[in-house]
Amino acid sequence: MTITSLSGLGIVALFLLLMLLFAFTGQKKSRLPLRPIPAFKRLWRTIGLAVEDGTRLHLSVGRGAVNAPESASAFVGLRMVQRIMRTVSISDRHPIVTSGDGALNILSRDTLQASYKAMGQAGQYRPSAGRLTGPTPFSFASGVMSVIADEEVSANVLIGHFGPEVALILEAGDRKNNLTLAGSDHLPGQAVLYAAAQEPLIGEEVYAGGAYLQAGNAHTASLQAQDVLRWLVILVILGGAVLHFLGLGNLIPIG
Question: For residues 130 and 95, what is the distance between their CA atoms, to the nearest angstrom?
Answer without folding.
Answer: 9
